[in-house]
Every structure is written in C-alpha cells, then in structure tokens.
Design a protein that fits this description.
single chain; mainly alpha; rod-shaped
Amino acid sequence: MTMFNVTPRYSTAAPVIWRAAGRFVTRVKILIDRTIAALIARQERQAELFYLRRLGDRELRDMGLTRGDLDAGLAEAAKARIEKQMRSLRIVEIASPDRDPRF
C-alpha cells in the first residue's frame, strides 16, 4: 500500500472555500441591505416632498420655508442624514470586537 492509495476523508481546501463563500455571502447581504435602505430613504423623501408641496404658502412660511426651498432643503437634509448614519456605522464597526479585520 502506497501513500497515494490513502486518501483523507475531507479535503484540506474545504475550510478555505467555506470561509471565502461566507465572506462573499456576507458582502452580498450588506449590498442588498444598503440597496434596500437607499430605496426606503428615497421613498421617504418622495413622500415628504409630496406632503410639503400640498401645504399652502402660509403654512410653509410658518415653518420658515418657501416653495423654492423644498427640493434643495430635502436634498440637504437627506445628505446630512446619510452623513450621520455613516458616522454611526463607523463607530459601531470600530467598537465591534468580533469584527474581521480583513473586511
């Protein structure tokens, strides 16, 4: 009997393949989550803009807005919200002890 006749029950490459597949699945999940979050945020902005456009000039003036401020104001608020979320994500990633440094 030679060494070539003795085959191991499992491949040594299997753990590496499973680890790589796990990383891939994790990254795909993150991509899907971010896409869904972006779609939800866009829908919220559209709903806010719809209701603000239905308000009268007096009601807008009470809030300190004009009709010309609506689009730019919502875009600026959305940008500020995204920056705030990104800052909080960085804090969570840094504070997470089980975070894989290779990501």
